[in-house]
TrEMBL record:
Identification of the protein by name: L-ribulose-5-phosphate 4-epimerase
Reactions performed catalytically: L-ribulose 5-phosphate = D-xylulose 5-phosphate
Keywords assigned: Metal-binding, Zinc
Organism from which the protein derives: Streptacidiphilus fuscans
Cofactor names: Zn(2+)
Chain ranges of the Class II aldolase/adducin N-terminal domain: 13-192
PANTHER family: FUCULOSE PHOSPHATE ALDOLASE (PTHR22789), L-RIBULOSE-5-PHOSPHATE 4-EPIMERASE SGBE (PTHR22789:SF8)
SMART domains associated with the record: Aldolase_II
Pfam families: Aldolase_II
Top-rank EC class of the record's enzyme: isomerase
MF terms in GO: aldehyde-lyase activity; L-ribulose-phosphate 4-epimerase activity; metal ion binding
Lineage: Bacteria, Bacillati, Actinomycetota, Actinomycetes, Kitasatosporales
EC number assigned by the record: 5.1.3.4
SUPFAM superfamilies linked to this entry: AraD/HMP-PK domain-like
Length: 231
C-alpha cells in the first residue's frame, strides 16, 4: 500500500470516529448530519455516506470524492451535502474539515433567522463574534456551500446558522470543525436560556477581542520547543 493510500485510510478512520462524537454530544438524530475532511496535499475529501445509520458506519463505508463531489473511492452514495462541503474546500483553502448538524438549539436560532449574540465569554473565546446567519438554500447542489463561504469568509466565527436548515462549521481539520459544532450548540442553548430571564446584552467589542486573542494565543498548553522549558 502506498503512502498516499495509507494516509487516506487513516483519514477514513478519523472521520468515521468523529461521527460518533456527533451522537455523543446530542447534535444529530437518526442519519442526519455529516463530517468531512480534506485529504492533505490532494484535491480530495473524505465524507460520510448518505442515509447510513451511525451504528453501521465503519472506515470502509466512508466515501472519497474529488473537490467537485465526484466519487473516486467507495461503495455508497456520498452524503447529500457533499456538493456544499466540496464548494467550501474549493473556495476556502485554509479549511481542512467541515461539519453539518441539525442540533436543536442552534437550529432553532437558524429557524428564527437570528444570529446568536456574543453574550458570554465562551463565545468570545471560541467564536470571537456573533454566530452569523447564512441564507436559505435548498439541498442538492453547491448553493448551500456558496452561502457558507459568503457568510464565513473573513468572519471570525467557524460556525454559520444556515437559515431554516441547521449548522455548518469549519476548522483547520475535521476534529476542530466537530469541536466548533459542539460549542455552537452549547452556547446556543445557554444564550436561549438566558433570554428566558430577560434581555441579553452583547459583550463589548474590546472585551470580545481580548477574549478571542487570549484563547487563540495563551489558553491551553503552549509549545515550548522554541522558547525553552522555563518560558
Amino acid at each position: 500500500m502506498s503512502t498516499a493510500e495509507t494516509a487516506i485510510d487513516a483519514l477514513k478512520a478519523q472521520v468515521c470516529a468523529l461521527h460518533a462524537e456527533l451522537i455523543r454530544w446530542g447534535l444529530v438524530a437518526w442519519t442526519s448530519g455529516n463530517v468531512s475532511a480534506r485529504v492533505p496535499g490532494r484535491e480530495l475529501m473524505v465524507i460520510k455516506p448518505s442515509g447510513v445509520p451511525y451504528e453501521d458506519l465503519t472506515p470502509d463505508t466512508m466515501i472519497v470524492t474529488d473537490l467537485e463531489g465526484e466519487v473516486v473511492d467507495g461503495h455508497h452514495q456520498p452524503s447529500s451535502d457533499t456538493a456544499a462541503h466540496a464548494y467550501v474546500y474549493r473556495n476556502m483553502p485554509e479549511v481542512g474539515g467541515v461539519v453539518h448538524t441539525h442540533s436543536p438549539y442552534a437550529t432553532a436560532w437558524s429557524a428564527a433567522g437570528e444570529p446568536i449574540p456574543c453574550a458570554i465569554t465562551a463565545m468570545g473565546d471560541e467564536f470571537g463574534d456573533d454566530i452569523p446567519v447564512g441564507p436559505f438554500a435548498l439541498i442538492g447542489d453547491h448553493s448551500i456551500g456558496e452561502g457558507i463561504v459568503a457568510t464565513l469568509k473573513g468572519h471570525r466565527s467557524p460556525a454559520v446558522l444556515m437559515r431554516g436548515h441547521g449548522v455548518f462549521t469549519i476548522g483547520k481539520d475535521a476534529k476542530a470543525a466537530v469541536k466548533a459544532a459542539v460549542m455552537c450548540e452549547d452556547v446556543a442553548r445557554t444564550v436561549h436560556l438566558a433570554r428566558q430571564l430577560g434581555p441579553v446584552p452583547r459583550l463589548g467589542q474590546d472585551d470580545i477581542d481580548k477574549l478571542h486573542d487570549r484563547y487563540r494565543n495563551v489558553y491551553g498548553q503552549q509549545d515550548t520547543t522554541t522558547t525553552g522549558a522555563g518560558a
